[in-house]
Amino acid sequence: MSTSTADRIAAARERIARASDAVGRDPGDVRLLLATKTMPADVVLEAVRAGADLIGENRVQELAAKGPALDTLAERPQVHLIGHLQSNKVNAALRWADCLETIDTLALAERVARRCHAESRVLDVMVQVNTSDEPTKSGVPPEQAAELADAVAEIEGLRLRGFMTIGANSDDEREVRASYARLRAVRDEVAGRVPSARELSMGMSRDFPWAVAEGATIVRLGTAVFGPRS
Ligand SMILES: *Cc1c(COP(=O)(O)O)cnc(C)c1O
Questions:
Q1: Which of 81, 16, 18 is nearest to 54 (CA)?
Q2: Listed residue (144, 156, 57) closest to 101, CA to CA
Q3: Against a cut of 0.85, is the pTM above it?
């Protein structure tokens, strides 16, 4: 007997609340972002109808494929791009995303901003930081993150909302938490100058309690809600 999507979302929220309680945080300060990559549009629609108000897609192409279905909803969820953005996909990304979490170069930020300017629009963005120094990961190195964020915050057409990272690929709690703590340190520094930049998007199904303990304001869950991806 399989549980419903609504039940699985409720269970995930419950686990986030418990992780928050465990470290004395207000559960209302941690949002659930459903990572919907590879999920067909009807599954995403079901999740949104079941109460998901924030979804994240990795690939612009996949986002564009599901976007029209999302537009049919009475209550459209917020949509974040959480995967690497190629500069030739900026237009399509802007058509469907409310926030780009993966800004990691000034050139990309400027390219996005030019598009926003042309549309007289202000777009929420986050800076992706490679907090685990894994060479295969995108993201600006931590020691350059504050400088990039300060520059992004100055660009007209963009509103810097915070920072995103993918934690260290490890089962070692200390190592994973160290990568999340690094993101928080960057945020603390930059938010002192840029008050809008409070968000910390960090934590996935296997490690989100550790991210919550380090201050996550958005956790990005896929398999914890949808089960393993085929
Ligand atoms: C897939 C993905 C997630 C969710 O991963 P799960 O392990 O399925 O929870 C979160 N963030 C990013 C950037 C992803 O690509």
A1: 81
A2: 57
A3: yes
Using 50, 70 and 90 to split pLDDT, how confident is the model at 2?
Answer: low
The atom number, within ligand 1, closest to the CA of 229 reads: 8
Percentage, residues of the chain above pLDDT 90: 94
Q: How far is the CA of 120 from the centre of ligand 1 (A)?
A: 32
CA-nearest residue for atom 8, ligand 1, is 222
Which atom of ligand 1 lies nearest, measured to the CA of 37? Answer: 1
Q: What is the position in ligand 1's atom list of the atom closest to the CA of 83? A: 13
Q: How far is the CA of 219 from the centre of ligand 1 (A)?
A: 9
CA 77 / ligand 1 centre spacing (Å): 18
Does 157 sit in the ligand 1 pocket, CB within 6 Å?
Answer: no
